[in-house]
Structures are given as C-alpha cells and as structure tokens.
What we know:
Number of helices: 8
Low-confidence stretches: 2-22, 146-155
Radius of gyration: 17 Å
Largest sheet: none
Shape: globular
Distance between the termini: 41 Å
Amino acid sequence: GSTPTPTSAAGSSSGGGNGGGGGWSMTQQKLQHVEQLVKAQQWSQAEAELKELRHSASNSADVWNWSGYVARKSGRLSQAFPYYDKALQLDPKHRGAHEYLGEAYLQNGEPQKAQEQLKILQKLCGYCEESADLSAAIKAAPQQEKAKSSFLLGS
Length: 155
C-alpha cells in the first residue's frame, strides 16, 4: 500500500536507543519487518512485534493500524476495532486505517458502516488505492440487507 508519512515523528520519546536515527526510523524499520511477517502470514510473530511497538511507539498511527490488521486477519475481529479507532484518533486522515476499518465492518456484517468509511476515503483521496480496494471489497461482500429491502427502492 501507501507510504506512511512521518507526521508524529517529533513527539516520539523512545529513550536513547542504539542509533542516531531517532525513534521514527527505528519504528519504520520494525513496521517494515511486520509487513514482511504479514505477507508471510506469520501472524503470531507479527503480533509479538506489534505488541512491543504499541509500547515503544504508541503515538504512531501506523503501529495501531497494523495491529488492527493483524488482529482482524488472525480472527480476532473484536480486538481490531479499538486498534483502528486509536490509529484514527492519532491520524484522522490515515487512509489505510479507514480502508481496513471498512473491511472489518464488512467482516462484521455492517456494510453501512463500511460505506461510511468509503465516503471518508473518497473525500480524503478521491479514487485512490485505498478507496478502490474498499469499494471492491464492499461490492464483493454478501449483501444480506440489500436483498431484503430491494423492493423498497421504488419509494
């Protein structure tokens, strides 16, 4: 997906550490590793890395977004929502978090809420990768509610 932007770089207070690169780049390196673990579907290792990052880089929206993603993909949907909420508290314009939150709502059988996330994304970035992906997910999702209410369309 999209490249994270170093918005909250300055505020990270991760004591001394072992490099002159500052807290942000260390967090980014670890998140790149998380991304590799996710691609390999090594959920428990990814979760272990993220658990550490949620302490050391708790002001990084990317950390919370990935935490939500890993929780959702590991079948812990109820844990995913608070993670996405936290990511969006830290960065209300975080496109990845809006996309994944929308997908989580779909998994949870709440297509209306997924549509709301899609509208937010379309305002943020028009037809970008995240809104396109969420739009496709919404179209592919089983539409239980629409089937029941299709006869109401005429009103």
